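1st attempt posting a full record on here, be nice pls
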Amino acid sequence: MQYYFFHLMSWPYLPDDFEQRYDSAWVWLSNTLYDPVKGHDLYREYLNTLAYADELGFDGICVNEHHQNAYGLMPSPNVIAGALTQRTRRCKIAVIGNALPLYNPPLRVAEEFAMLDVMSGGRLIAGMVIGGGPEYFSYQVNPTNARERFREALDLILKKRDHAVTLADAGPEASYVAGGSVLIVSRAISDSTYITSLYFGFFVPVDAHSGRWSLAPRAARRSQRGPLKR
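the predicted structure (as tokens):
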């Protein structure tokens, strides 16, 4: 058994009458409630806490991606992971994960994961998720084709894992990945670590007409990769 320390980096300074004045802490929460000076101190405190988990002996530390809410202050978990590569020495750094339907072109994810793995000396756990409704609303992504967006992006990233690719490698059948011809040459420090550390799954649309949602498998190893089950 391994132990991982997970931090959502929430915003703790909501007003006392928040529930009476606001109907949600997600998606349309006003940034007038955010104080960048306090935010500066919070990021320092949260990074110190995550780094301390390495000193305490945790096997890994986890960061994740959320947008426009008081629940988590990490719209870019890769930025936090980059800082942690220089603050930790032993533990794994798990990014769980980048919501692929929000990234176009998704090769940016492959590049940044390769950078993080090299910067950390091969300690990255590279997580890729479908994401959820709040993120789709924030980024104006149609949730009914999120699964297809995710698959196309994941396939291209897995190709990039093995060799340098261009966006044209998405293939003529790709519907959502933007075209282009930019050559990407970065790669992870450890292919075995990078390959076996691919996680995917999260809230996915089940029925485009009813709007129902389902929780897909949270962690599926590359060797078991197949259609996401409803």
